Amino acid sequence: MKTLIEKANVLIESLPYIRKFSGKTFVIKYGGAAMVDEKLKVAFAQDIALLNFIGIKPVIIHGGGPKINKIMEKMGKTPTFIQGQRVTDEETIDIVEMVLGGLINKQIVSLINAHGGLAIGLSGKDGNLITARRKVIRKLSPETGVPEIIDLGLVGEVKKINPKVLTSIDKSGFIPVIAPISAGQKSETLNINADYVAEAVASALKAEKLILLTDVEGIKTKKNKLVPNLNMKKISTLISNGTITGGMLPKVQACRNAIKSDVSKAHIIDGRVPHALLLEIFTEEGIGTEIVK
Predict the structure, then answer these.
(1) What are phi and psi of 76, to 5 degrees?
(2) Residue 166: closest CA among 18, 26, 17, 19
(3) Residue 147, Cα to own-chain centre: how many angstroms?
């Protein structure tokens, strides 16, 4: 009986959040261990189906870097990264599109559908969902001290999102699952960082939440303590004092840009925890870092 009462209390705790978020759009970046571990994959699909059933509108943008690396290595290619960006030649972009737009995208769609959702797979090319351009990054030359342009190849950045594609899908009751690839100005396929695609989609839809699933608990202090809540001012301080660095920096920048574009809240959560989405959304404590204006 005690166990049953605890289950009832969990449902009661979630009721205010269900009422508050029904009809709202949540943009979720799906990546890391949650895409690799079979139990976590099932838990994620269950979470998405449940969110949809109770009236929340999930939009999923997924990554797939580890799978791309494995297939590249099988084909005799060595993955190369500069400033966290994959150097992408013409042969590599074929692998990226095959893995992201084909294999992984359809696996996610199938798994959500198997658990009662109605998911549909897309890439940025579909309906001109994502208008992109080649990404240019600059690095100071140690010899001259002058910024030099680094060629990443077929790597893109979001220029514009066409929200009509997603609103049309939403009206039909489907859950969009988006692969972060699109076409450039010369119709060439471009590989885009999934965090930045998620931010751009959340901003275009004026989403209630942007949620990034990662392989860490959230943002931590230099003493390795989780920071449960942050505002824009505190983020600037943590970046300037070197607390937020490395791979966390682009995720935090994506969250900050989304908040500036009127997304209500952003969350960085640990996708290694089963049902991480439900724990962050429907409990008072949450499990990651929540970012607000």
Answers:
(1) 80, 20
(2) 26
(3) 30
Is the alpha carbon torsion for 17, 20, 22, 24 positive or negative? Answer: negative
3 state SS for 73-122: HHCCCCCCEECCEECECHHHHHHHHHHHHHHHHHHHHHHHHHCCCCEEEE
Dist CA 231 CA 159 (whole Å): 27
CA–CA separation, 293 vs 258, rounded Å?
Answer: 10
3-state secondary structure of 69: helix
Q: Please state whether 142 falls in left (phi above 0), alpha (psi between -120 and 50) or beta.
A: alpha
Ordered by where they begin, the domains of the chain are 23-216+253-282 (3.40.1160.10)
pTM check: above 0.85: yes
Give the three-class secondary structure for 7: helix
Distance separating the N- and C-terminal Cα atoms of the chain: 43
Query: Tens of pLDDT along 162-208?
Result: 999 999 998 888 999 999 999 888 889 999 999 999 999 999 999 99
> What tokens does 226 get?
């989780």
